[in-house]
Amino acid sequence: MEKKQSLFLIALSLVLLVSLAVLYSNEQIKDAALCYAYSTNPNLDPLTCPAHTTNSPWFFMTAFAASFLLLAIGVYSFLQKESTEPSFDSSLLEGEELIVWNALVELKGSAFQSDLINKTSYSKVKLSRILDRLENKGAVERKRRGMANLVIAK
Prior knowledge:
Blueprint: H1 3-40, H2 50-53, H3 56-79, H4 96-106, E1 110-112, H5 113-120, H6 124-136, E2 140-145, E3 148-153
Antiparallel strand pairs: 1-3, 2-3
Helix pairs in contact: 1-3, 4-6
């Protein structure tokens, strides 16, 4: 899960928790008023007080538990470290491909093709052909970004 999604989940669960707390306190105030009215009126049976016959406490307990679960998932996914190491087995590469692969790994797994040209000192054509071979082997992926190519290690 991305960091933005994790932060959204945390914010959503916090909003839910605050809303539920406000609703629960309002429900408690209403229940206290009902209990007081039933206990002070001799014509009403206190055993039939609506504050004690509803299932709203179970609703609130379930809603609080779900909100805390959402909060825990959001915090866990936010704190979880994303793996920046490429998962491709570099032992299948040799020579120029390995040099380009290592340069890409040094650049944290993604770089513009022009940065790789500067790092490896290969010509544009030579690097492009090496990247074609790496792409065919499933080691890298090239994405067009305006006038440049972004090379991403898989």
